[in-house]
Each structure stands twice: as C-alpha cells, then as structure tokens.
Amino acid sequence: QVTELVLDNCRSSNGEIEGLNDSFKELQFLSMANVELTSLAKLPTLSKLRKLELSDNVISGGLEVLAERCPNLTYLNLSGNKIKDLGTVEALQNLKNLKSLDLFNCEITNLEDYRDSIFELLQQITYLDGFDQEDNEAPDSEDDDDEGDEDDDDDENEAGPPGEYEEEDDEDDGASDLGEGEEEEEVGLSYLMKEEIQDEEDDDDYVEGGDEEEE
Fold it and tell me: Biased-composition ranges for Acidic residues (predicted)?
C-alpha cells in the first residue's frame, strides 16, 4: 500500500537497500539520497514509480536499468553522482515519460554545451537541473512548497507593520501609564511644594537665602 518511501541517509549494502523489493508495487515516490549507492542493478521493478531521488550517491553508470524497471518515471534526480559523459545519460532515452532531470554537481555539467547537448540527446525532457531551455524555472511540487513558504513570509511581512504598531501601542500604553504615574508624582510634589512655601513664609531667613540662591 506504500506510495511514498524516503530512505535518505541510510546505508546501502552491495549497492542495494535491504528490504526494498518488488512488493512495493504502489510506490510512486522513492528517495534514496546519500545512501552510498554505487549501482542500480538491484533496483526492484516499480512500474508506478514517477519520482526518483538518487542525489549524493556514487552512481557512475548502468542507467539503462531505470527504463526497464521504472518505465513511468517523470522526475529523476541524479545530482552529486559520478556521471561524467553523455554516453552514460544516453541510456535515459528510453524513459519516454521523463520530464525533469537533475545532474547538478555531476562532472558532466563541466562539458562544453552541456545543457544544449542534454536537451538534444533527451528530447522528451522539459527541465534540466530545474530549468527549461529558455531558463524558466520548473514549477514542480518542491517549488510550490517554496512558494507556499514565501506566501507565509509575505503574510508575516504583511503582519509586520500591525505588529510594529502594536508594539508602539504597547509603548504608548507604557508611556501613558508612566504619564499617569508622573502626574501622580507631580501632584505629590506640588503638594509638598505648597508645604515648603508655607514653611518659607514662616521662615523669612530661609526665603532670603532662597532669593540669594536664585540671584
């Protein structure tokens, strides 16, 4: 019944993942990033698989296995592997439904006219390393998620100013509270001042001293 399986950062033994077999007939998404996979020779037949993540492994060839066992792949990520030449990638021509291929951080990307060569070799694909031939970014599910995050960020940004205003309001409230306190304090001072004035009236010497200080 499993349709999605993520085995990232597990460790493969002799080029295979223990327990991954033909019984996963409903599998549509499989991710095996950074599992030290050296070969796809023991990949089981997964006829419904549409998306395969194999980034950061040590695969250098044998890609013809994919067309035999995962014929309906639409997305394939081989970034960070040991793929060096066009002959290796040519085996993907039989993946007729393949729309997106990622070879980022593979040595093959250093070839002259790399992108043009891949698009010419694999005419069924629309996106290479996340971009089409006109350098338009692929609108895949991951980008949608990112856009969702950006929307969240936008919401946060939009919410930012009111938040700032709220903080300012809080400061105003604090100021107003303080103001009230000051007013109370001023009332207390004025009250004391009145008492002092009365004392000064009673004590002429003190008043004279006060006048001298003022002068």
Answer: 131-187, 197-215
21 within 8 A of 45, measured Cβ to Cβ: no
For residue 188, what are the CA distances in angstroms to 183, 184, 195, 201?
A: 8, 6, 11, 20
Digit-coded pLDDT (tens) for 64-85 = 999 999 999 999 999 999 999 9
Predicted TM-score (pTM) of the model is 0.64
Q: What is the DSSP string of 163-180?
A: HHHHHHHHHHHHHHHHHH
Could you count the other beta carbons within 10 Å of the beta carbon of residue 99? 17
In our burial notation (b when 16+ CB lie closer than 10 A, e otherwise), range 176-211 reads eeeeeeeeeeeeeeeeeeeeeeeeeeeeeeeeeeee
Q: pLDDT tens across 41-59, in order?
A: 989 999 999 999 999 999 9
Paired tokens of 169: 């309001």
Amino acid letter, 215 = E
On whether residue 168 sits in a domain, the answer given is no
Residue at 87 is within a domain: yes
Residue 140 CA to residue 214 CA, distance in Å, equals 81
CATH of the domain at 120: 3.80.10.10
Beta strands of 95-206 (E only): which ranges? 100-102, 127-128
Q: How many domains does the chain have?
A: 1
DSSP state of 6: E
Rounded distance, CA 106 to CA 60, Å?
Answer: 10
Give the residue-averaged pLDDT of 107-123.
Answer: 95
Domain extent at residue 113? 1-139
